[in-house]
Write a structure and sequence with these properties.
The chain is an alpha/beta fold. The protein is built from 19 helices and 12 strands. Bound molecules: adenosine-5'-triphosphate (ATP), iron/sulfur cluster and magnesium ion. The site of magnesium ion has 4 residues, from helix 2.
């Protein structure tokens, strides 16, 4: 652990909320559940929780990057805020006006101000229409007659996005992917919108064309004073273009912060894992490549997302509270909002909860030791910082709990290390114990095992959080009573892939 890492915590991140721009778009509690229907009568049997209650705002002139794994709801969110899709719940305000339920005619004037660049440049352009017709369509739909006529304006737009104005009469199939993406951008810019939502604007392009399109969007923003919401999964692109970044996981926003804070001191473990995958251009930190955090398992199904914190099935820091209580998106630093009980680079929000879930122990095996140490040190350092600030403000009251938070962090890292060492030396011991319990008790009720283990760990570790002792007591304690309790808590819905895999073991 070098000192350099400890210094990476910006004491006061630049507050995006203090940025000059007015709030252009405000989203509150936004949800989109896609119903799943079955049978002759097409009865609803469930729903895909594609977007499940998100809150954020976009300020005029800024670029908000939205990142997250495939299927986490980014495109759905983009379609909702441009009102191409109807939300299940929540509100969308544009320039202070509620546009959540505006109909086609109500939305017509707004369409001029809010435009979208679609994810797929191949399917988003009508193959039967010429480029001139496609880019000129917004003028015709809005009844706008640009100075000099539509054709002249379309040709001007073509040259703005770096295409030959003489290609006005060509069809989409006569263009490359990069050129089509430019056509999509030209169409979105035709009516000089205020907000452009660009869904993966460069992901279908090769690297050199990506750079051209990104630079083009940058230039256009400066020239036309555009506001962007750029959805992407390429973190290098997002870092380059964004002022602020929102991180989504399974339909929720888990962290939102300005670019510097997010890349230098991410607070949500999922953000930290995503950031660890970004190549570091600094030659001095090339060794940091080995610190990449691998996430355990796949993203759970959005049909039945995990309880509490949705990331708890893959998080190496998850404790019981993560499984039972959903963390709220709180502003822990100015401009940095995070939904996590045990954030990185910050004082623990639930220091009393110290016993890791079984899934967390398994997940931590994929996390390099250096990362765990760094996590404990940076969080302890911030906790001390917070303690100092609090002590000056409120002399005595808060001090003890922060010290406890520091101790807890160190305990957790120690516990994770012990786990890892034990697993390396005698990999099968814990597994054998677990299997015994499963065979005797859980043969008929397999889904109770994991919950039962967690229960036992929780009870025992309240007195002695040592991982070795907890492992020893697992086999003795996971009796009928606990399995019954676990059975009672068993959710009625389908289990996530990760939990199923754990049970299968
Ligand atoms: N029209 C629809 N009907 C049912 N489910 C849908 C529909 N559109 C999206 N979904 C589901 O909603 C979830 C989110 O999809 P979305 O396209 O928003 O993800 P994404 O984050 O944009 O992914 P990617 O990075 O792969 O583009 C997925 O599980 C998807 O299967
Ligand atoms: S520590 Fe808990 S709340 Fe935070 S991301 Fe992990 S599982 Fe979620
Ligand atoms: Mg998408």
């Amino acid at each position: 652990m070098s000192d350099e890492k400890a210094v990476t915590i910006p004491a006061q991140a630049k507050s995006a909320d203090s940025a000059d721009g007015e709030i252009l778009l405000k989203v509150s509690g936004l949800k989109r559940h896609f119903p799943i229907k079955k049978g002759l009568l097409q009865r609803q049997v469930g729903a895909v929780h594609a977007v499940d209650g998100i809150d954020f705002e976009v300020r005029a002139g800024e670029t908000l990057g939205v990142v997250g794994e495939s299927g986490c709801g980014k495109s759905t969110m983009g379609r909702l805020i441009t009102r191409l899709d109807e939300p299940t719940a929540g509100t969308i305000e544009f320039e202070g006006k509620d546009i959540t339920h505006l109909g086609v005619s109500g939305m017509r004037p707004m369409r001029r101000d809010v435009q979208m660049v679609f994810q797929d440049p191949y399917s988003s352009l009508n193959p039967r229409h010429t480029i001139g017709t496609i880019i000129g369509a917004p003028f015709r739909l809005q009844g706008v007659e640009p100075e000099g006529g539509i054709k002249k304006e379309v040709q001007r737009l073509l040259s703005v996005v770096g295409l030959n104005p003489e290609h006005y009469n060509r069809y989409p199939h006569e263009f490359s992917g990069g050129q089509r993406q430019r056509i999509g951008i030209a169409r979105a810019l035709a009516l000089k919108p205020k907000l452009v939502v660009a869904d993966e604007p460069v992901s279908a392009l090769d690297v050199s064309i990506q750079a051209q399109v990104v630079n083009l969007m940058d230039d256009l923003q400066e020239e036309l004073g555009l506001t962007y919401v750029i959805i992407a999964h390429d973190l290098s692109v997002v870092r380059h273009v964004s002022d602020r970044i929102a991180v989504m996981y399974l339909g929720k926003m888990v962290e939102i912060a300005d670019r510097t804070s997010l890349y230098e001191a991410p607070m949500h473990p999922y953000t930290k894992a995503l950031m660890s995958a970004v190549p570091i251009p600094d030659p001095k930190r090339r060794g940091a490549k080995s610190e990449r955090i691998l996430l355990r398992g796949d993203v759970p199904s959005p049909i039945s997302p995990p309880s509490g914190c949705r990331f708890h099935t893959r998080c190496w820091k998850a404790t019981e509270i993560c499984k039972t209580t959903e963390p709220q998106l709180l502003e822990l630093r100015p401009g940095q909002r995070v939904a996590c009980h045990h954030p990185e680079n910050f004082a623990d929000q639930a220091p009393q909860d110290t016993v890791l879930l079984t899934a967390a122990k398994e997940a931590s095996e994929l996390v390099p030791d250096a990362v765990l140490e760094e996590s404990a040190e940076t969080s302890a350092a911030v906790a001390a910082e917070v303690a100092e600030t609090t002590a000056t403000k409120e002399p005595e009251a808060e001090k003890p709990s922060v010290t406890k938070a520091e101790e807890t962090k160190v305990e957790k890292v120690e516990a994770q290390k012990v786990e890892k060492t034990e697993a390396a030396e005698k990999p099968s011991v814990t597994k054998v114990e677990e299997t015994k319990v499963e065979k005797t008790e859980a043969a008929e009720k397999p889904s109770g095992t994991e919950v039962a283990e967690t229960k036992v760990e929780k009870t025992e570790a309240a007195e002695k959080p040592s991982v070795t002792e907890v492992a020893e007591t697992k086999a003795e304690k996971a009796g009928t009573e606990e399995v019954e309790k676990a059975e009672a808590e068993k959710p009625g819905t389908e289990k996530s892939g990760t939990e199923k895999a754990a049970d299968d073991k």
